[in-house]
Amino acid sequence: MINDGLNLLREAFFLFLYQKPLSFWLTLLFSFFLASFCWWLASHYTQLWNRTFQVKLIHHFFCGIAALMTFIFVSTFFCLGFTKTAGRDQINRWGYELVRNGEWENRTFEQARRAVWDLGIEPFYEWTSPRFIPTTTYQSRLTVATIYVINATKSFLSMHPFLGKMLDLNITKAETIAKKDMDRYFALGGTTYNDRRAIGLISSYLIWSLDQQTPRLSFLFRVLLVILFLFTQSIPFILIGIAAYKDIKIQT
Question: Of 82, 84, 146, which Cα lies nearest the Cα of 111?
């Protein structure tokens, strides 16, 4: 899941670079400036009460780590504005690839066909072709639709677990939207519920969820980045402050 989240962030960074190159480089410059300033401030702020204290190498090490994390946090803060587009690209790319995945299509078809056969409610004369699933009853239709949608959901969650988690996609949710879509599809005169409709259904739900939740998620992640920034900066400031205070006690 962590790798998937980092991959989403990487795509957002590249989108930022390609779509707004000037803003991207200015963001990196600002991030570098802020990181350097925090390093300098942590190294010198003790001069306000202990002018004889000298910052040691170990303190500069912690300042360097904090500066590096600051650079990452600040640049990521601005990059989050492109995660929605990156997420949409991942969803569309997943759907495009799965539609052309013959192995997945055949496996899902056979699973749905076997499930309908096991129900034992379709007339024998309807099983005329190995490439056809009879769905003359409501239960058969629901079974086929549910299997296709659940398998599409599992495929997306296996490829993009982080994005799926953020967009609240799970098997229970998939079963619910499968039933609603199946009712709508057959009410409009549909005959066979297939893989393309299931993939399109999950893609549409994910994009809708992405549009709905991106503002909230972006806000939460930015708050988290601010908290992480303050936490990482507090470490060298506290360590150097304690060392400077102890130095005063030794001198007195």
Answer: 146
Determine the Cα–Cα distance for residues 81 and 97; give it in Å rounded to an integer: 26
pLDDT, one tens digit per residue, over 191-248 is 677 778 888 888 888 888 888 888 888 888 899 899 988 998 888 888 888 887 876 6
Q: Which domain holds residue 225?
A: 2-82+214-251
pTM given for the model: 0.80
Q: Are the CB atoms for 179 and 146 separated by under 8 Å? A: yes
Same domain for 115 and 204, yes or no, is: yes
Neighbours of 45 (CB within 10 A): 13
Q: Taking each helix axis from N to C terminus, what angle separates 2-19 and 57-79, rounded to the nearest 10 degrees?
A: 70
- Higher-pLDDT residue of 21 and 251 is 21
Distance separating alpha carbons of residues 7 and 94, to the nearest angstrom: 14
Instruction: Write out the two tokens for 3.
Output: 């790798």
What is the tens place of the pLDDT at every residue in 45-93?
877 776 776 878 888 888 888 889 999 999 999 998 899 899 999 999 9
Residue 168: Cβ within 10 Å count = 12
Residue reference for tokens 């769905």: 135
Q: Torsions phi, psi of 35, nearest 5?
A: -65, -45
Helix (H) or strand (E) holding 139: helix 138-159
Q: How many alpha carbons fall within 13 Å on the CB side of residue 25?
A: 3
If asked whether residues 127 and 140 sit together in one domain, one would say yes
The verdict on 162 and 237 lying in the same domain is no
Whether residues 89 and 203 fall in one domain: yes
